[in-house]
Specification:
CATH class of the largest domain: Alpha Beta
Distance between the termini: 36 Å
Order of helices and strands: EEEHEHEHEHEEEEHHEHEEEHHHEHEHE
CATH architecture of the largest domain: Alpha-Beta Complex
Number of strands: 17
Strand content: 25-35%
Number of domains: 2
Radius of gyration: 25 Å
Helix content: 25-40%
Strand order of the largest sheet: 5-4-1-6-10-7-11
Length: about 400
Amino acid sequence: MRDKIEKINNFNLLIAAAGQGTRCGGGLPKQYRMLAGKPLLRHTIDAFIGFPGLQQIKVIIDPAHEELFLGTIKGLKNIDFVAGSDSRRNSVKNGVNSFSNLKDSDILLIHDAARPMVRKDDIQTLIDALNDNEAATLAAPVTDTVKYENRKESVTRDDLYALQTPQGFHYGTIKKAHASADPQTEYTDDTGLVSALGIPVKLVQGHRGNFKITTEDDFEMAEKLMARQEETRTGMGFDVHAFADTPATTVMLCGVAVPHNRPLAGHSDADVGLHAITDAILGSIAAGDIGQHFPPSNDKYKNMDSAIFLRRAVELLQEKGGHTVNLDVTLICEVPKIGPHREAMEKRIADIAGIEPRRVSVKATTTERLGFTGRGEGIAAQAIATVRLPRES
């Protein structure tokens, strides 16, 4: 046990997501089914993204689901996956052993992929409990009457708790517990392995909303709860760039090199479409504008790919627990023609933002040869971002 004066803040996270999830139907393992606009697993990961003290995230997956997993984490960084095994216990053991860089006193939280609605204050309370305990778990008091089938008597609810996740451990404790576990014994969770060593597990009261999604009814309930816990916001972006005097063969628009004889002038690659979208996302979370985050006075950003700007705006959104619902951009120009490149632009924007192409719209219009765009002197773009955020953000 570490000195109580040295307060624990840093922790590591292991998410168990190797199951098949067949009871829910829907044609996909439940952790990859869409829930309120994004995969269930993505909701679970996003619940921890940006949490103070989080060092690394690893997700246990079925190797056959690798493509689904990579699609789920698109746009996120520093998330690794670990191959699962023939049982949850062996899968988690693989995951625990994969943290070879941890010291015995470091903290590891283990969380079920199917619990996407864990609250940040409960996570912090669990971490705080690990200052004085080698093992702790979120738990909710049982409020329903509990009864065995074919027995007259009911089970008393006094001191009866339903265990949840995340469950937290000092790394040396959980590693030893998995190494020492009796292979013939059924353990329903990781606290059972630790208890078998004679180590007490601290129960930390959580909220009942942190339920495990198992059935179709659970999905329906989660949809309704998330709708109440989130709000929709919109942001608008506008940008203008003049054509440069230098000759070229392409111009960058919405992440695509479009054939044209003049590039746009700017400090970065002057991608007017991506700049407008970046400002729209920043506006949706009241995070200023592109010039504040990437000032043109800084030579570091000279000739930079504007995809980096858009990715950063998406990261800031995700750090607030939000996700993108829709991106809509209109390019205003006489030349070049946008139509032949629209689909490629939508796919590129979706790839940068980590969303599905069906959530991106690229349009083009002219000003009927009026103004600077009508005279072919440059291109303007306006964009609207629609996002969902937790109500407290």
